[in-house]
Amino acid sequence: MKRRMLIILVLLICLNAGCWDLREVEDLGYVMAMAIDSGPQGKIRLIAQVPNPRVLGGGQRGGITPGASIAAKPYRNYEGTGSTIFDALREISRESSRRLFFAQNRTLIFSEAMAEKGVGGVLDFLKRSVEIRHGLTMVFVARGDPAKILDIPNPHATVPALRIDDIVRWRGQTSRFAPVPLSRFLETLSLEGQEPYAGVIEAAFNPAAQVREGEKAALEPPLTLRLTGAALFRNDRMVGFLDETETRGLLWVLNEVKGGQIVFPCPGQEGKKATIEILRANAKIEPEITEDGIIMTVKIREEGNLVEVEGPLDTSKPEVIKELDRLHAAAIGNEVMAAVYKAQELGSDAFGFGEAFRRKFPREWKKIKRDWPEIFPGIEVRVQVVAHIRRMGMTGKPPFLAP
Prior knowledge:
The chain has helices at residues 2-16, 53-56, 85-92, 112-117, 120-128, 146-149, 160-169, 182-189, 244-253, 318-346, 353-360, 362-368, 372-375; strands at 28-30, 33-38, 44-51, 63-64, 71-72, 75-82, 99-101, 107-111, 138-143, 180-181, 197-205, 223-234, 237-242, 261-265, 273-290, 293-309, 380-391. The chain is an alpha/beta fold. The chain has two domains: 24-242, no CATH class; 245-403, Nutrient germinant receptor protein C, domain 3 (GMP Synthetase, Chain A, domain 3). The strands form four sheets. Strands 2, 3, 6, 8, 9, 10, 11, 12 and 13 form a nine-stranded mixed sheet that branches. A hairpin with a 2-residue loop joins strand 12 and strand 13 (237-242). Helix 9 (244-253) crosses helix 10 (318-346) and helix 11 (353-360) crosses helix 12. The chain starts with a helix and ends in a 12-residue tail after the last strand. Its main location: membrane. It holds the Pfam family Spore_GerAC_N. It comes from Desulfofundulus thermosubterraneus DSM 16057. Belongs to the GerABKC lipoprotein family.
C-alpha cells in the first residue's frame, strides 16, 4: 500500500512540475526582421525589428502606449554594435526590456557593404542558432541603409517586416525578384559547382505620395519598400546585381518561376503587344562535352494563358496561336540568355551549371572543379524553349475585328 501511495505521489509531482526552461510570452520580444551591416572599426551593426503588441493589439496604426505620454509606433527597431553578432545582441539587451526571440524571424537583410565584404564570418551564428528557422527566413541584400529601409512607414501594413513577408508570399505575381530561404543559401555555399544568390530590397519612390496642384497634402509616405532583382555571390562575397528581367531569366533555369506575365510583340502588328499569364514551367540542364568544350543546354517547358492582345489579331486561327507560341518562347529564351551573359560577366554560377556537370560527369568534374570559376565565363549555353498557350479567354477575336 505504501509503495502504491509513493508511486501516486511521484506521478502527481511530475504532472504539477513546470518546464525548467519556460519562457513567458510577455518576457519575449519577437524579432520579425533582422539586418546585418558593417559597423565602425570593423565591428558588426545589428538591427532587429520587434512589433509592439500593445499598439497592434488595439488595431491601431499608431497610438499611445500605456504608461507613456507620446505616440508609439507599432514596432521598434533595436540596434546594437559588437565584434560579433552575439556581442551586438548583448549590446541590444541593455536597452530592450524583453529578451529578443528569433523563432518568428522571416527576413534577413545584409547591407551592400557587408555582402561585398563577405557574409561567411556572420553565418556561423545563424547556422548554430537553435531559434532561427532556416527554412522560414528569407535572405536579402539592401541597396541603401537597411535601418532606413526597415523604418519606411505604410498606411496599410504598418510593420515593415510583415509587409516584406506579404510581398514575398505574392512573388508568383511577377517572378521578378528572388527571395531565397536561408537554408538554401547555406546549402548552396557548400556546393562545389553552384554559387548562392539573394533577393534585393530597396527604398523606392512612392508614386501614391504625389500631390496635384490644388489637392490637399498626401497621407502617403514619400518612399515605399520594393523587392527587385537579385544579388549574385561568388563564394560568400557579393559580386553584383541582376535587374528584374535577368532575375527571371535565372529563375527560369532554377525552376523558381511560379507565375507572372510575358509581354512580347504581336505578330504582324507593329508597336502592338501581346501578354501571356504564366501558369507553370519546368526546366532541366543537360551538360555535354564536345571537341569545342563544354556546352550547357537548358530545356524549358512553359504553359500560359493568353490574357491580352493589342491590335486586330484573330486568335481563333491555329496558325496565329502557333506564332504566338513561338514568339513568347523566344521572349523566355531572351530572358535566360540575358541572365547568363550577366552571370558570366560577374563570374557567378548561380544557375548550378557546375553542379549539373558534376552529377553527369563526376570523373571529369574532379579534374576541372578547381578551375571552374575560370571555365564558367567561357562555356557555351544554349536554350531550348517549348511554350504553349493553354487558354485564350472568352473570345478568339478582338471586338474591333470584322467577322
